[in-house]
Amino acid sequence: RAREAGGSLYRFFSPEMNRWAQDRVMLASALGDALADGRLRLVYQPQVRSRSGALYGVEALARWHDPEWGDIPPTRFIPMAEEAGLIEALGEWALRQACRQMAIWMAHGVGIPVVSVNLSARHFSDPGLPGLIGSILEESGIPPGRLMVEITESTMITDSETTIAAARAIRALGVGLSMDDFGTGFSSLANLVSLPLSEVKIDRAFVVGLERAGDTYSIVNAVLRIGQSLGVTVVAEGVETQRQLDLLDGLDCPVVQGFLMSRPLDAGKVPSWLEEWHRSRPVPEALPRR
Ligand code: C2E
Ligand code: MG
Ligand code: MG
Ligand code: MG
């Protein structure tokens, strides 16, 4: 049919499909350039203890502004980096950048207990990852306990030997390990126990669901109780309303993160946010501030 219509297979693809494929290739190559030229940046979203209001940590999130294409969201460029084979380089960049930033905060006496970096599950199966993390820590001079790595549950092969070995090696360095977007994948409770996790993050979808009637409340409650009994810190993501915060607090959710507390911030804005946060909120058991 394509041949009849125009004599070439080209006709088989609509112009839209063609442009889309071309855009993807161009965008992926622009991403590679941005990464190489240091034009990606990290923003940091505060995570706070729901009872005391004390800062628990910050999550580093990648941002990409391209002069030609504008702001490209991570939900678009992360999958692209995976496809283009750039995800390991991006992960390494994020680890190095976040650790450097932590060293700067520490040198200036800004009390940020820990920085979390998102890593792709693909990077997690790279046997060189624990060694890389170790050398980045050394290079930056920050204590390993100041770093946490997050892996998304839905992409994590929780029962694979490689995953478990990498998780153990990372924890052995003294670095924290977090399961991100919990509830969006299919990992069983047995798998949850087999990984040496320090943290589990309840996906925003469940936090949103809390305000509606249904089973979500019970699910969130169950995750919180499991976290408690395993000694794993549970962080609720995407908290946007006071009602959500109250419900989570009522369920004894220890840590919350979301636009209600703060949007992700430029590194330079974190100290003033923190100052303002403490000013407007009494912190009974504040972390040691220097
Ligand atoms: P994530 O790790 O689950 O990060 C949380 C996402 O929720 C962030 O989106 C954050 O800006 C957003 N968020 C936080 N609070 C709220 C809220 O109250 N309401 C709403 N609607 N959203 C909220 P972001 O920055 O667009 O990142 C999206 C995803 O892209 C991340 O989800 C993570 O999976 C991935 N990502 C971001 N940066 C990196 C990176 O450096 N490396 C890797 N591998 N993935 C990254
Ligand atoms: Mg995350
Ligand atoms: Mg998440
Ligand atoms: Mg999420």
Whole-angstrom Rg:
21 Å
Strand content: 15-25%
- What would you call the shape? globular
What structural class is derived from the secondary structure elements?
A: alpha/beta
Helix residue percentage: 40-55%
Unreliable segments (pLDDT under 50, ≥5 consecutive)? 1-7, 285-290
Bound molecules: ligand C2E, magnesium ion
Strand order of the largest sheet: 1-2-4-5-6-7-8-9
**Main pleated-sheet profile:** 8 strands, mixed, barrel
If you average the pLDDT, what whole number results?
Answer: 88
Tally of contiguous helical segments: 12
Key structural traits:
alpha/beta; 8-stranded mixed beta barrel; disordered N terminus; disordered C terminus; binds ligand C2E; binds magnesium ion; Putative signalling protein, GGDEF family
